[in-house]
Structures are given as C-alpha cells and as structure tokens.
Give the backbone structure.
Amino acid sequence: MTLIRVSARIAGAVLLIGLAGCAGKPKELPPQPVSASSSTQNGPVMPAQQQPTGPVPGSEADFLASVISDTVHFELDKYDIDAESQGILRSQAQWLARYPGKSVTIEGHCDERGTREYNLALGERRANAAKNMLVSLGVDAARITTVSYGKERPIALGSDEAAWAKNRRAVTIAVN
C-alpha cells in the first residue's frame, strides 16, 4: 500500500471512532428558568388562578372594556349630541380622567348619501361635536384629535336605513 492510502484509511478510522463517540453523548439541556416562587422575588407570589387577567390598564382594550361604547350615532344630516350619546361620552371622559397621559382620536363618519365633500364636512362636524362634549366634561382639548372619513369607511354595507344609521357615527379611539 502506498503512503497516501494508509493515511486515508487511518483518517477514515479516526473519523469513524470520533463519530461513534459523539453518538453516545447525552445532550446538555439549557438551565431551567428561575421560578416565580424563587427566594429572589420581593413580595408575595399569587397562585396562577389569582394572577390578574384582562386588558392592560390604559390600553385600547381597557378603554373598550371600561366605557359604555366607543361610538356615538347621529340622525340624518345632524351632528348634535343626544342624551344617549352624552352618557357614552361621559363614560369616555371618566376613563380619560383616570389616565391623564392618554389621548384619543375621534373619527367622524357618514352614510353613503351625499357628495364626498359634503360628507367629509359633516363627518368633521360630528367628530368636533363629540370632542366639544368631552372638553365640556373636563378633558383637555390638546388630548383630542379629530379626523373625518366622510362616507369612505362604512361599517355596514347596504343601501337601507339600518345600514345608514350604523354608518352615521363618531368613533373614539384611545392612542399612545
């Protein structure tokens, strides 16, 4: 045999022995995370069934869970706030009072009837009417922005009074 063949066989044998040795090695597992009941915790640990659940305080989900509604509705070609809408906006003002660092955007919407320009203007008046009510209830006007989508973002499709009534609205969205 030549020296090259002997070297190749030795290298192959060493490789096989090395692979055989690796096959029997147990894998090392990563360290287990420290449990919540570890002595490094400062304070009592609640059992899993008592951990707080629900939306994060001050979040959009908390806003939706805490207020009567995020939406006030309007009559055809109107932007005045009726008694039902006043109650909805009062609940929104109370939430905003709890979270003085939070702001809202009020979106004004219309039904499909009328021109685009007319509905953009009407949507703006609806959003501003809701804003003015919140301001009258003590919310700083600087925390409220308004935007009008006119008839561009309907939530109910259809050309009947039921769909139109759902689309004539102002929607409050909690931000930051």
About this structure: The chain is about 40% helix and 15% strand. The two ends are 79 Å apart (CA to CA). The first strand starts at residue 71 and ends at 73. The chain has a mean pLDDT of 84.
